[in-house]
Write a structure and sequence with these properties.
Blueprint (H helix, E strand, L loop, with lengths): L3 H6 L7 E4 L3 E5 L7 E7 L14 H17 L7 E4 L15 E5 L9
Antiparallel strand pairs: 1-2, 2-3, 3-5, 4-5
The protein binds adenosine monophosphate.
């Protein structure tokens, strides 16, 4: 089932896009939890990490390559950052289109809440 992220991919609703190619889109989180907080998503609709297929491994790898390139552009590569995929209810997933959170620009806590 499509989510609000499909609308962002299709430019039906606005987002502050940081990177786009044929497979991947990255944009700033609308409700940032750190000074830098952006999401890296596949254009392919994949609901949760549980739905990943063997053939998705290149796209998942690409999400991380885009994440680390943007972390450098955003100036948090050296200070550090966190990448997170939330999965289903206990993982606090709210949008059912997989997305890699990238958070940085402040000291993050561990363990997460
Ligand atoms: P999660 O809870 O892991 O599913 O994360 C969903 C994230 O999407 C949250 O951090 C939201 O703030 C973010 N989000 C929801 N709608 C939008 C939107 N229209 N543009 C940017 N980020 C959004």
């Amino acid at each position: 089932m499509s989510t609000i992220f499909t609308k962002i991919i299709n430019k039906e609703i606005p987002a502050e896009i940081l990177f786009e190619n044929e497979n991947v889109l990255a944009f700033r989180d609308i409700n940032p939890q750190a000074p830098i907080h952006f999401l890296v998503i596949p254009k392919k609709e994949i609901s949760t990490l549980n739905d990943l297929e063997e053939t998705d491994k290149d796209i998942v790898g690409e999400l991380f390559i885009v994440a680390k390139n943007l972390a450098k552009e955003e100036g948090i590569a050296d200070s550090g950052y966190r990448t997170v995929f939330n999965c289903n209810e206990d993982g606090a997933q709210t949008v059912y289109h997989i997305h890699l959170h990238v958070l940085g620009g402040r000291q993050l806590n561990w363990p997460p809440g």
